[in-house]
Design goal:
By secondary structure, the protein is of the alpha/beta class. Helices cover about 30% and strands about 15% of the residues. It has a 5-stranded parallel sheet with strand order 5-2-1-6-7, with helices on both faces. About 30% of the residues are buried.
Length: about 240
């Protein structure tokens, strides 16, 4: 069974959904420490003025926010960010070929008001995966598993063994800390992603590959899954 373990992010980029489509089981790694400079609560869309950040404000809890697990981070609903994000998406993509097809879903997304960040970003990620045509992958959260201990590779191995994984798919940056011998000892094969994707039609000048996958969906609609490989189509 192919498994991916990755921290939840807000409307992730195409590479995340490539990992999702390659997995039989995708585990949101939501019980590790929140990182303030990562992608947990933000991403970028493409506009006529260039790239624009969409950031979900969270309660900082003083200087201790990075000591809090992702699944315990709370959204700051005193700020009207949801309305602003939806307006920004409408303004940027109202001329996109498939905006009208997905507008009702997106509008509903931005009416949700969960307390926790992960309770917003995880369901939206799953729904976006389905909209992108990824139907087979199952999902779970690492916080659902009890008794997982250890750090880094040892902790990943425990999770993988618990769910019956035989093959682990990792992002390339993890090569800096993953210990492959532990995977070999556990009988789990290890693969690193290579993010090598074809260009797709975009609005405005200058092709921008590193934006939210909303861009891909709104521009290519049902053909989105043909832009995950250089040869076209799903592997």
């Amino acid at each position: 069974m192919n498994v991916v373990i990755l921290q939840p992010s807000y409307i992730p980029w195409r590479g995340t959904f490539d990992e999702i489509r390659r997995a039989d089981l995708f585990i949101f790694y939501d019980d590790v420490q929140y990182d303030t400079r990562g992608w947990r609560n933000r991403n970028r869309i493409k506009t006529a003025q260039g790239l624009q950040w969409l950031t979900i404000p969270v309660h900082r809890h003083g200087a201790q926010v990075e000591n809090i697990p992702i699944h315990q981070i709370e959204i700051d609903w005193e700020q009207p960010w949801a309305e602003r994000h939806w307006k920004a998406i409408q303004f940027a993509y109202r001329k996109a070929p498939y905006f009208k097809r997905y507008a009702a879903w997106l509008e509903e997304v931005y009416t949700r008001r969960p307390t926790k960040l992960a309770d917003f970003t995880i369901p939206v990620c799953i729904e976006l995966a389905r909209q992108l045509g990824i139907a087979h992958t199952q999902f779970m959260r690492s916080s659902e598993l009890e008794g997982i201990e250890g750090q880094k590779t040892a902790r990943l191995i425990q999770i993988l063994q618990r769910v019956g994984a035989t093959h682990y798919i990792s992002g390339p940056s993890a090569q800096d800390y993953i210990e492959p011998e532990q995977f070999a000892a556990a009988g789990i094969t290890l693969e690193y992603m290579q993010y090598n994707y074809p260009a797709y039609p975009q609005l405005y000048a200058t092709y921008e590959p590193f934006v939210s996958a909303l861009d891909l969906l709104l521009m290519t609609g049902p053909q989105a899954n043909s832009y995950f490989t250089q040869s076209g189509g799903l592997e």
